[in-house]
Amino acid sequence: MNINDILTRLGITSNNSGTSTGTNKLQSTAATITSYSPVNGEVIATIQSTDAEGYEAVMQQAQQAFLYWRAVPAPKRGEIVRQFGDALRLHKADLGALVSYEMGKSLQEGMGEVQEMIDICDFAVGLSRQLYGLTMHSERPNHRMYEQWHPMGIVSIISAFNFPVAVWAWNTALALVCGNVCVWKPSSKTPLCAVACQNIVAKVLKANDLPEGISSLVTGNACGNLMNEDKRIPLISFTGSTRVGRLVSATVAGRFGRTILELGGNNAIIISDSADLEMSVIGAVFGAVGTAGQRCTSTRRLIIHESVYNDFTTKLTKAYAQIKIGDPLNENNHMGPLIDKDAVQAYLNSIEKVKQQGGRFLVEGGVLNGAGLESGCYVKPCIAEVENHYEIVQEETFAPILYVMKYSRIEEAIQMQNDVPQGLSSAIMTLNLREAEQFLSASGSDCGIANVNIGTSGAEIGGAFGGEKETGGGRESGSDAWKGYMRRQTNTINYSNTLPLAQGIKFDL
Ligand code: UN1
Q1: How far are the Cα atoms of 49, 52, 278 from residue 187, in angstroms, in the given order?
Q2: Is the same domain home to 295 and 151?
């Protein structure tokens, strides 16, 4: 793989010496953001970050663009998103490789992420003809009542490093068919993925002679703060930590803006005594080790029936011994590096805390070094026996640390699964119909996602994605998540020649 060729094909000019340009010509030169690859620690490129003046110009352009875009019929907006999906198909290999190189996830998962973008575009195209509202029967004669959905305006998307392209696309594809314009503030850890995506979408918009500002990019954390306070932005879709999400939520609520929050998860798989253990091992390992444990949906806890505990943990530790760690672009490897050295430090701190709080490691962790691992970001996935109430187990550590614990009754397992502050994804592995249904019932999992015989990660775009409690309550992607990007209007039309009042109220003059 030649990264410079890939960058060039994605429209990012770079000489690998720290000078490179973003595409958004509205960006001014206040400061720069350097992108390092966790694969080898090298500088990939440096881009300009957006200063206050640049931000203001982007917002004004977005406001103007909205006046145009909201009047374009939704199916025509869908046609633009269809072309965007086609452009992504053409760039899938390059963009997937850039995701892998800049973020560190395996090439397979990088490609999967671009596929997720393509899938949501297809979904959004269909949706552009299905932004349905209900009609109601009026209680008054010769009156018609119905509701319709209108675009909101500027939708800001603040995304995280772990899904540097897909989460933006989930939001953008839906927001655009809904008639909104988008301004994206990507993670400063993966700015080049964002520039590449912006180039792709900008080209499609330009080819259709659409005004600039329908989809824009701003970079640098200062822009995130400006957005939260900005009354011109009716909706902020934020993906990131619970800590930052809490601040975003409070600030935006303070100005009566709306948020879609996708915050931390602490996802568990219950492995029942009726589980297919071979299948459960694969689900657990992919869930814990995929994306090096840096998915919101990563499996962090296994709640295992006591009768299969020894058998299952033996199989699991054997499987861990097979995991190949190294260059994520080499398809023989299962797991690449963590995003950066701060993440490595957080992983080490958590391991320390597990030990202090009474945990016992079945598979030890540690930082890897040696040929090809010089970035210092490669770590060993580890497994610790813990109790659910440990403080560290109640937190989300964005790293491949898997906690195992025992249960004896299914009610107890469900209780443990729910007994964390987060509520994103959950799963049960069982061939027992009764306990599967119990897990899915109102007294079962309290998460936004609950799976049977599938792990916690790897959701399809067709369902609504998001979680409860400290995960923030937002929903993105499929089902009717589009409603979160629109405002609802109730309309009542009187075609009679009198003015009857609702509730039978008399008001005669
Ligand atoms: C995230 O980790 O922020 O279900 C999103 C999954 C992916 C999306 C994860 N489709 O694991």
Answers
A1: 12, 18, 37
A2: no
**414-471 pLDDT, tens per residue?**
999 999 999 999 999 999 999 999 999 999 999 999 999 999 999 999 999 999 999 9
Task: Quote the domain boundaries for residue 357.
Answer: 267-465
Residues 400 and 481 in one domain: no
Asked whether the predicted pLDDT for residue 296 surpasses 50, the reply is yes
154 lies in the same domain as 249: yes
Longest dimension (CA), the chain: 90
Residues 6+ apart with CB under 8 A from 502: 139, 140
Count the Cβ atoms, other than its own, within 10 Å of residue 40: 16
Same-domain check for residues 57 and 194? yes
Residue 458 in contact with ligand 1 by CB distance below 6 A? yes
Report the nearest-CA residue for atom 1 of ligand 1: 296
| Alpha carbon of 241 to ligand 1 centroid (Å) | 14
Domain-embedded: residue 381: yes
459 Cβ closer than 6 Å to some ligand 1 atom: yes
The answer to whether residues 41 and 376 touch, using CB atoms and an 8 Å cutoff, is yes
What's the CA-to-centroid distance between 470 and ligand 1, angstroms? Answer: 16
Do residues 351 and 480 both lie within one domain?
no
Closest atom of ligand 1 to 294 CA is 2
Mutate to test the pocket of ligand 1, among 295, 299, 396, 475 (most ligand atoms within 8 A of CB): 295
Structure tokens that stand for 489 in this block: 């209007």
Count structural domains, the chain: 2
CA 26 to chain centre: 27
User: How far away, in angstroms, is 263 Cα from ligand 1 center?
Assistant: 11
CATH number at residue 377: 3.40.309.10
Cα of 268 to ligand 1 centre, how many Å?
15
In a domain, 164, yes or no: yes
Q: Which two tokens stand for residue 460?
A: 């399809």
Atom of ligand 1 nearest to the CA of 290: 11
Q: How far is CA 242 from the centre of its chain?
A: 13
Q: Across the chain, what does the average pLDDT equal?
A: 96
The residues annotated as belonging to the active site are: 262, 296
Tell me which residue of 92, 81, 87 sits closest to 122, measured CA to CA: 81
